[in-house]
Amino acid sequence: MSSNSVGIFFVVLEVIQSIAPLIIFFTLFQILYLKLPHSQLIKLYTGLAFTALGMILFLYGVYNGFLPAGTKIGEYFGESKKSLLIPLGFVLGLLATFAEPSVRVLCYQVEESSNGYIRSDLMLYTLSFAVATLAAISMAKIVYRIPFIYIIIPSYLFVLVLLCFCDKDFIGIAFDSGGAVTGPMAVSFLMSISVGVATAYEGVDPVADGFGLIAMIALAPIIFVMLLGVYIRFKGGINNVK
């Protein structure tokens, strides 16, 4: 279904299909094992209802706002402002990650779990800069016709090297960060811009060159957080982080 023809009924149906199995699963556990009090059940089901409403509003906005807007922005710069594509990718990658709710949750959890040794603002700036850098490289891939395989394979080999030098406390954080940054902001906005650029850019295949951005964005925090872990390790370990 085209992004500019998605109606509210389609979105409601999609959300129901997504959360209904979870509600059924929880209800069965409540009947068979949990036996939560009635007052707590009211709070839980109220929260689920608000979650469903939030998903409906968000997805409707994505389908009818973020996706077409991102595509149009990408097409505009791909047609007439090609020299600005790389800095555009950097700026939008920075802003999208900074606004990503899942990134902020992760940063808060990291600070809390490390008793404040790894500050949430340090993680937020690291992840934002990481995604901005790889988003800019993704635009350079389109501009200079760089095959995707020439970027992704050396990058993962670099990750394997970093595993040998990184502080062990940062390895799990790095790989979880890769999932956190590929949230709805990045996927809906940055990917649509990338596809829009590839569609408008002369001689570029939108399928071969427009996609791959999300894989690179997921890789970005793994590299940068592990680089931070290497720095922390050679500074004397996580307990010396202030």
Question: What is the secondary structure topology, with strand pairs?
Answer:
Blueprint: H1 8-34, H2 38-80, H3 85-98, H4 101-113, H5 120-143, H6 149-163, H7 168-180, H8 184-200, H9 206-210, H10 213-235
Helix pairs in contact: 1-2, 2-8, 3-5, 3-8, 4-5, 4-7, 5-8, 5-10, 6-10, 7-10
Distance between the termini: 50 Å
Overall number of strands: 0
Q: Helicity range of the residues?
A: over 70%
Radius of gyration: 21 Å
Low-confidence stretches: none
- Assign the structural class, choosing from mainly alpha, mainly beta, alpha/beta, alpha+beta, or little secondary structure: mainly alpha
Whole-number count of domains? 2
Beta-strand proportion: under 5%
What number is the mean pLDDT? 88
Order of helices and strands: HHHHHHHHHH
Q: How many alpha or pi helices?
A: 10
- Give a quick account of the main beta sheet: strands, pairing sense, barrel closure: none
What shape does the CA trace take? flat
Describe the structure.
By secondary structure, this protein is an all-alpha fold. The chain folds into 2 domains: 1-80, no CATH class; 82-242, no CATH class. Helices cover 80% and strands 0% of the residues. The protein has 10 helices and no strands. The chain has helices at 8-34, 38-80, 85-98, 101-113, 120-143, 149-163, 168-180, 184-200, 206-210, 213-235. Helix 3 (85-98) packs antiparallel against helix 8 (184-200) and helix 4 runs antiparallel to helix 7 (168-180).
Q: Any descriptors?
A:
242 residues; mainly alpha; 2 domains; 80% helix; 0% strand; flat
